Amino acid sequence: MKIPATPPDVLSLLGCTPPQRLNRIIRGTTMLVAGRYLHWDNIRHRDPPEGLSHDEWWLGTRMARLSAREIMPFSSREGYPFSLVHAAPVRRGLHEIDRKLGMSGPQSQVRDLVEGHGRKHLLAHSIAEEAIRSSQLEGASTTRRVATEMIRRGRQPRTHGERMIFNNYHAMERVGEMARRDLRAADVFELHRIVMDGTRGSGTAGRFRSGPDDIVVTLLHSDETAHVPPHAEELPARLDRLVAFANDRTPGDWVHPVIRAILLHFMIGYDHPFANGNGRVARALFYWSMVRQGYSLARCLAVSEILHNAPVKYARAYLHTETDDGDLTYFVDYHIGVIIRSIDALASYVESQMSDFRAMEDRLHHTPGLNHRQIRLLGHALLHPGFRYTVKSHGTVHGVTANTARADLVKLAAAGLLAATRRGRRQEFIATRDLEAVIDEFASRGASLPRP
Fold this sequence. Notes:
Elements: H1 10-15, H2 19-27, H3 40-43, H4 54-68, E1 70-75, E2 81-84, H5 88-100, H6 111-117, H7 119-137, H8 144-153, H9 160-178, H10 185-196, E3 217-218, E4 225-227, H11 235-246, H12 257-271, H13 278-292, H14 303-309, H15 311-323, H16 329-365, H17 372-383, E5 388-389, H18 391-398, H19 402-414, E6 418-423, E7 426-431, H20 435-445
Antiparallel strand pairs: 1-2, 3-4, 5-7, 6-7
Helix pairs in contact: 2-4, 5-16, 7-8, 7-9, 7-14, 9-10, 9-13, 10-13, 11-12, 12-13, 12-16, 14-16, 15-16, 16-17, 18-19
């Protein structure tokens, strides 16, 4: 990719535009182009409105944006303030996120799907996916299949790539705990130590980059400089400002919760407070902010899956903001689209899994020896790995006597479909490892349940 072309300077354009011409420009332009918030690098390749030059088109577009912008509590390396325009695509995207994801109540379109599928199982799957893709964005070369096997079995990482993913998985788990309280600067350093543990550059883990560590960010597959972060001596004050913003302690700078999470992501990437691992910390803090502000289902999203599939678009969203006087709208608009695609991917995954489970349940209905209570329990167990069943809970759910409930559970354990354990005096039954494969084999044999 190439660095986007820097837009023409608005003040210079104004200086050479006659007042009567300026009136024509203002009437003929808006902040959007074909309904989209486009950068000059895109606009310059399109046909301008009739009677306007490209420079005039940009002048009118930029003036409309400047009149609607809101100043954010952050500044660039050069000292100009970052700003945001709540353009129609941004407002529409935020509404769609709230409608699909929902903080609470009936407006969520995926909440019922997630709860029906089993949040614990889905959360484990999603955290693993996010850990893998977020690490691959930073150069981890391990395949998804091998990484998934490592996480599910809990084995120790064998390669540098596996170590990155292993660390990122634990960082995502830690984010869930941190979301119960406000963010502290120490939490940011802790997340950095987690993601860097045992990897290249781990000697700088948990501390700001210093003067000698001042770095530049290069383009993908190139040595060309794309971004020069702020000087190292500015980092403590910049992080303090970011933490205050994260905790909503700057009441004059209130923004929509999703935008707040996105801006945390952006500013860690922009400031680059660490010598390595900034991207993984930035994405972890995005999840912290979403969950902290009430979007608990956000942890079930694998945002980095979308970013990993289109890394050039991810980088360009940063560059569009930096090359257009700190206009954050480009990055916010892009990231909102990523979140929406992640929500849709989550819904599709859950619906696919539910379809598979319903097919499995249909097979069980035609398996000799299973009654409807046992079929429903196995279906529940598939959706809720690790769930513990007792004689009392099974009897209460199905309205049967303790003897009948015990017979159901003991027969399933005897068939190897449940594992019987004890917790003190109470007997419990847990789904066996790889329950789906066990059920499939059981159904394919047409076996009947053995007598207890």
